Amino acid sequence: QKELAESGGGLVQPGESLRLSCAASGFALNTYAVGWFRQAPGKEREGVSCIRNDGTITFYADSVKGRFTISRDYNTVYLQMNSLKPEDTAVYICAADVLCSTVSERRAIWGRGTQVTVSS
């Protein structure tokens, strides 16, 4: 069974950092594109970033450019989040599919998410 599991979320103060991980089981994540999404209470899901299977980064949301960095190794994709702001508070979810252009679709492999809370 193909599964993704996010980890690394938590409660931090504004300006601090977190590193999220998205780990795969049951399949080789290195052959997939992986996207990070986030959903805050009462808001629609937002695409944060995506990385192709070859390591090419296709985009960052404007709201995170210069602060977040996506990277990957063989079976894990990371999201390094620096200079966190209260508006970054959300559940962060990763998804995997063949292409970054399709990673947001329902047929993609989705994790369950990890909570990130930025508050003083």
What can you tell me about this protein's structure?
The protein is an all-beta fold and 120 residues long. It has strands at 3-7, 10-12, 18-25, 33-39, 46-51, 57-60, 68-72, 76-81, 90-97, 109-110, 114-118. The strands form two sheets. Strands 2, 4, 5, 6, 9, 10 and 11 form a seven-stranded mixed beta sheet that branches. Strand 7 and strand 8 form a beta hairpin. The protein is globular. The N and C termini lie far apart (40 Å). 34% of the residues are buried.
Report a brief summary of the structure.
This protein has 120 residues and is mostly beta strands. It has strands at residues 3-7, 10-12, 18-25, 33-39, 46-51, 57-60, 68-72, 76-81, 90-97, 109-110, 114-118.
Q: Determine Rg (CA atoms, Å).
A: 13 Å
The best one-word shape is globular
pLDDT averaged over residues: 96
Distance between termini?
40 Å
Characteristic key phrases:
120 residues, mainly beta, seven-stranded mixed β-sheet, four-stranded antiparallel β-sheet, 11 strands
Topology:
Elements (H helix, E strand, L loop, with lengths): L2 E5 L2 E3 L5 E8 L7 E7 L6 E6 L5 E4 L7 E5 L3 E6 L8 E8 L11 E2 L3 E5 L2
Parallel strand pairs: 2-11
Antiparallel strand pairs: 1-3, 3-8, 4-5, 4-9, 5-6, 7-8, 9-10, 9-11
